Amino acid sequence: MEESPSAAAGDQRDESTEQEVTIRERDMDQTSTCPETETEDCGLDGSESKLPLNKSDILKAIEVVERDSLAIADSFSSLFTSLRLALSEVTSGSVDHMRCFGDAAGRLQESALDAATKGNRYINSCLRLNEEMRGIDSLATQLKILRRNVDALDTAVNKLVRLP
């Protein structure tokens, strides 16, 4: 006795109803409509069957196949809905992450540009100060000479004022 693929798949499903299980069990308990020696001659559609099939058995089998097909279609529909939802969430998350990354990169670029500008200003100020400090040595020398002259003048004035 062989199980049909739909019956094997149907037995593995948790959603099967008791009626389907009962019909499948009854179908499996029945002896094959084809004799054991003619199993290869008997097709799925019954075209080569030599024994007449009962219409009610055929209708029951069609109903089982139809229910299994509907259950499979529902499963596929649910699967595709879940996949579409997961893909939508992943895509939405990716878009959000890309926006966040773009914002962070933009802010980092602005900060780096601002820091570079301030650094250039500092360097230019240091260069100007360095240029101004070069002339300070000659200024210091001039101040020393001026101080000596003022000291000499003060000494001369003190000598003149102390005359008795």
Task: Describe the protein.
The protein has helices at 5-12, 18-29, 55-134, 136-161. It is mostly helical. The protein has a domain at 136-161. It contains four helices and no strands. The model is unreliable at 1-42 (pLDDT under 50). Helix content is 77%, strand content 0%.
Would you spell out the secondary-structure blueprint of this structure?
Layout: H1 5-12, H2 18-29, H3 55-134, H4 136-161
Defining traits:
164 residues, mainly alpha, 77% helix, rod-shaped, BORCS6_C
Helix content: over 70%
N→C terminal distance: 154 Å
Q: Please count the beta strands (DSSP E, at least 2 residues each).
A: 0
- SS field, number of helical segments: 4
Mean pLDDT equals: 77
Please provide the ordered H/E string of secondary-structure elements. HHHH
Q: Estimate what percentage of residues fall within beta strands.
A: under 5%
Low-confidence region ranges = 1-42
Please give the radius of gyration in angstroms.
51 Å
Secondary-structure-derived class: mainly alpha
Largest sheet, described in full?
A: none
Approximate shape: rod-shaped
InterPro entries: BORCS6_C
Region (Disordered): 1-47
Pfam family, one: BORCS6
Domain BLOC-1-related complex subunit 6 C-terminal helix: 60-154
